[in-house]
Amino acid sequence: MRQSYSSIGIGAKVLNEMSGQVESEKCILCEQAHVLEENREIDFRQRTDKGEVLCRVAVQFNVCPQCGFEYWDDHAEAALDEAVRQAYEKLV
């Protein structure tokens, strides 16, 4: 796959994704190191119109060993949304 970036500010880059696959192996912040993929379970609370829900979901983080920057992709964001949706449906 071809690398594709769009610039913001001086030297900062935003990672573009195609078909859900990360196109770059380098950190999108420092551009010095290759990111490591880490699966983590996270707990979070979300307010809804029916009240607060508590969710737990496993997501993949991309972690830079050089600068410590951590981020997740659209697939992880979708997993968070789905966890909220499922918890929401259980509310009375």
Map the helices and strands.
Blueprint: E1 5-8, E2 12-15, E3 17-18, E4 21-22, E5 36-48, E6 51-63, E7 70-71, H1 74-90
Antiparallel strand pairs: 1-2, 3-4, 5-6, 6-7
Give a description of the structure.
It is a single chain. The chain contains one helix and seven strands, in the order E-E-E-E-E-E-E-H. 5% of the residues are buried. Helices cover 18% and strands 43% of the residues. The protein has one domain (5-90). The N and C termini lie far apart (47 Å). A hairpin with a 2-residue loop joins strand 5 and strand 6. The chain is α+β, with helices and mostly antiparallel strands and 92 residues long. A three-stranded antiparallel beta sheet has the order 5-6-7.
Helices, by number, come to 1
**Global mean pLDDT:** 78
Low-pLDDT windows of residues: 1-23
Number of domains: 1
Amino- and carboxy-terminal Cα gap = 47 Å
What is the alpha-carbon Rg in Å?
16 Å
What proportion strand?
35-45%
Keyphrases for this structure?
two-stranded antiparallel ribbon, 7 strands, 92 residues, single chain, disordered N terminus, elongated, 43% strand, alpha+beta, 18% helix, three-stranded antiparallel β-sheet, 1 helix
